[in-house]
Each structure stands twice: as structure tokens, then as C-alpha cells.
């Protein structure tokens, strides 16, 4: 987006503890219902909200809450934890906007949104984080180039 001349920004919305779902536990190699840290951030293009992202970390990253999370998360991971994202896999599907997502993205509740769930490994092939993004599909498209 920045290559197209758009201004990209991020705002931390919430940090809260949560419990690992079965799928999250399998990825992280932990027991279901193990505590996780959930970050919620709102992403903007030219000051207009386009994406809500939910980022899940194991408790070993709990000190990330004291960092500035309004910018590059990967810069924080590199600088504070010596972690570099190095691979993973993505799942794409469609979801409906929840009440909070509708509010944050300025759309009607139940609006169709593109959902991307990203399972990310670090430079040592260990699970690093899971990110689930819900993206306005009325204004943006996602293109993969290989």
C-alpha cells in the first residue's frame, strides 16, 4: 500500500489475557485453555480504518505489553526479543463483522469481511504468533504474487 502512495498507520486498541483454543494450542504446542496474550490493533490506510487484527502470543512474550505497539510489531519482536518471523501459513475465508468490528471499521454489523489467519514461525522454526485479520472487503483486495 505504501508503494502505491498510501499512508499506513496502526493503533493499539486492547491488550487482554485469553485462553488457547484447541487450534491455537496445537500450533503453539501447549494444552488447550493455557493462558495466551491477545493484542487487538486497528490498521488504517490514509486515516481510514481497513483492518482489525488480533495477535496471539504465549506468555513468554507478556513483557511486550510495555512496548509501543502502535508501529511495527516485527520491529519490536526483533529489538526486544531477538525474534524474526521466518515462515508460516495463511488461511483465507469470509466472516461477518461483529459488533465491535463493525464499530472499529465503520461498517454495518454482519458486513462480510475478508478474514486472514496467519500462523507464523520464527527464524528457528518455532511458533511465534497467530494473527487473525478481518479486512474491509468493500474497499480493498488482497493480492498474492509468487
Give an overview in words.
- This protein has 146 residues and is an alpha+beta fold.
- 16% of the residues lie in helices and 46% in strands.
- It contains three helices and six strands; from the N terminus they run βαββαβαββ.
- A six-stranded antiparallel sheet has the order 1-2-3-6-5-4.
- The chain starts with 7 loop residues before the first strand and ends in a 10-residue tail after the last strand.
Give the C-alpha Rg.
Answer: 15 Å
The helix fraction, in percent, is: 10-25%
Number of continuous helical runs: 3
Please state the overall shape, judged from the principal axes of the Cα atoms.
globular
Quaternary arrangement of the chains shown? single chain
Structural class based on helices, strands and sheet pairing: alpha+beta
**Largest β-sheet summary:** 6 strands, antiparallel
Kindly report the spatial arrangement of strands forming the biggest sheet. 1-2-3-6-5-4
Average of per-residue pLDDT values: 92
| Strand runs, count | 6
Q: Identify low-pLDDT runs.
A: none
Note the run of SSEs as H and E. EHEEHEHEE
Strand % is over 45%
Distance between the termini: 17 Å
Give a brief outline of the structure.
This protein is α+β, with helices and mostly antiparallel strands and 146 residues long. The protein contains three helices and six strands.
